[in-house]
Write a structure and sequence with these properties.
263 residues; nine-stranded antiparallel sheet; seven-stranded antiparallel sheet
């Protein structure tokens, strides 16, 4: 019987995903392994990024409140991978984690929009020539003085067919696990060709499984998406451009780890 278990282990896809395969993306000291986007994009030239005295990575507009945002990108490029990160966004910033990102900051986005009608964990395709939001619902803070978040309707999703996502959690389930104004863990898995399958978890709750090749979003065209996305690219952290990001607001990140997945 022990040989049967050994054979199953040897040929299981999970053999590729040993815990020791996790590699740190952030050293807790400086921005080694990262760079600002090399070309000006739709959100700006990159924003301002730094490390706090206690070893936490942060992003804000640069200068703060100027409207100039952008991306901090990994030097390394990734195709099929799994990422885990702890995040603590202030209330108000519009941020995200971008997958297979180019030097303009275009690619597949996992929302980190911690503001009224925001979302954390669902998907957006965001490139300058073509963007599609796959956001089924959001949340809001009804009383700005209170940390509790409430459900919010996203009017763009009212006419969606059932198969925009292969899996998506409910608003109620998400609100039960999210910790406002505290550290939360986000895990992302990205696999497949130019049109990937993206899966996300927030604090171990599976938020979604999105298939870019088969989604039935009414505004999405798979062939057009193929023209603007990359099969591999950087992992990017976003500071959104524009005047909605107030001076002093930041998004904080720590414990960033990645592991490659072999096809």
């Amino acid at each position: 019987m022990k040989y049967l278990f050994l054979l199953i282990a040897m040929y299981s896809p999970l053999c590729e995903l040993k815990a020791e395969d996790w590699k740190p993306l952030f050293n807790g000291k400086d921005l080694t392994g990262w760079h600002l986007q090399k070309q000006r994009g739709q959100h700006g030239t990159g924003g301002h990024w730094g490390v706090t005295d206690d070893g936490v990575l942060f992003g804000e507009q640069g200068p703060p409140g100027s409207g100039n945002g952008g991306f901090l990108l990994t030097d390394a490029l990734f195709s099929d991978f799994e990422l885990k990160v702890s995040l603590r966004p202030d209330w108000g910033p519009d941020s995200g984690i971008f997958l297979r990102t180019d030097e303009l900051g275009g690619g597949w986005q996992v929302y980190v929009d911690h503001h009224d009608h925001g979302n954390v964990g669902h998907i957006r395709l965001e490139t300058k020539p073509y963007s599609v939001p796959f956001r089924p619902w959001g949340f809001s803070r009804i009383d700005p003085a209170q940390p509790e978040l409430k459900m919010a309707v996203d009017a763009r999703a009212k006419d969606w067919p059932a198969r925009v996502y292969e899996v998506t959690c409910t608003q109620e389930a998400w609100l039960q696990v999210w910790k406002p104004d505290d550290w939360n863990q986000l895990r992302i898995r990205c696999t497949g060709g130019k049109l990937p399958v993206i899966e996300t978890w927030v604090n171990d709750l599976k938020v979604c499984r999105f298939n870019a090749a088969t989604t039935m979003h009414p505004a999405y065209q798979a062939e057009r998406a193929k023209e603007v996305v990359l099969p591999s690219g950087s992992i990017g952290l976003q500071v959104h451009g524009g005047k909605n990001w107030r001076a002093g607001d930041r998004v904080y990140w720590k414990d960033l780890y990645v592991r490659a997945i072999s096809r």
